């Protein structure tokens, strides 16, 4: 049996967050280890699903992509720092650098991405910080300690160009010209898109069928699901649970 659905960008973010919260790596780390949720737009939804409470997501941002001429309204609160959980309990007094230093095998570091090469399971992260930002601080320890880098990223961020080639082009652009953010290409992360979230939460097989739309579906994705009646009914309930998610606004 087949079914299809269209998800807006906000609905996708909520769906992906539900998938991350239910992911076996995350569940194990919440029970027995550490989970660090780095700041980011999709990760704001992840934090809400894991904490089971709302946060002011615009305060949980780091770098951001905005339309030209955008004037942001004043935030209601100060910036929310990275969220650290040890055995499922939030640790507000544990600084990010201290938490990274304590990472062990099986722990999970959740970090979003700006570009996705789905076929080769590679992601790209735009870097503006001179020391590599959050991922620059965390990745060496993640690799050395055999922790897990989990990347929630929507299919809206699929790119048509080769990530490595673009990273090299930016690097060779030259510092004496107009500054450009660097592109850090990462392999070997656990990537969670709408596809993985649907398959994990429903048991149906999911494929990316088409993208785009109008009337609020700009940047949205159309998914094609296959499975038995029970799996598709579970998928309908899942899509109903994320339907009408308000657009992300800052």
Outline of this structure?
With 250 residues, the protein is an alpha/beta fold.
Chart the SSEs and their pairings.
Elements: E1 2-7, H1 9-22, H2 24-32, E2 34-37, H3 41-51, E3 83-86, E4 89-90, H4 96-101, E5 108-110, E6 115-117, E7 122-127, H5 133-145, E8 148-152, H6 163-171, E9 182-187, E10 190-192, H7 194-202, E11 205-211, E12 221-226, H8 229-242
Parallel strand pairs: 2-5, 5-8, 8-10
Antiparallel strand pairs: 1-12, 2-3, 3-4, 6-7, 7-9, 11-12
Helix pairs in contact: 1-3, 1-7
Account of the 3D structure:
- The protein has 250 residues and is of the alpha/beta class.
- It has a domain at 12-67 and 78-193: Rossmann fold (3-Layer(aba) Sandwich).
- 34% of the residues lie in helices and 22% in strands.
- It is built from 8 helices and 12 strands.
- The chain has helices spanning 9-22, 24-32, 41-51, 96-101, 133-145, 163-171, 194-202, 229-242; strands at 2-7, 34-37, 83-86, 89-90, 108-110, 115-117, 122-127, 148-152, 182-187, 190-192, 205-211, 221-226.
- The chain has a 6-stranded mixed sheet with strand order 4-3-2-5-8-10. Strands 1-12-11 form a 3-stranded antiparallel sheet.
- Strand 6 (115-117) and strand 7 (122-127) form a beta hairpin.
- Helix 1 (9-22) crosses helix 3.
- The longest helix is centred in the N-terminal third of the chain and has 14 residues, at 9-22.
- The protein is globular, with a radius of gyration of 18 Å.
- The termini are far apart.
- The model has no long low-confidence stretch (mean pLDDT 93).
What integer value in Å does the Rg equal? 18 Å
| Widest sheet: strand ordering | 4-3-2-5-8-10
| Global outline | globular
Main sheet properties = 6 strands, mixed
**CATH topology group of the domain at 12-67 and 78-193:** Rossmann fold
The total count of strands amounts to: 12
| Mean pLDDT figure | 93
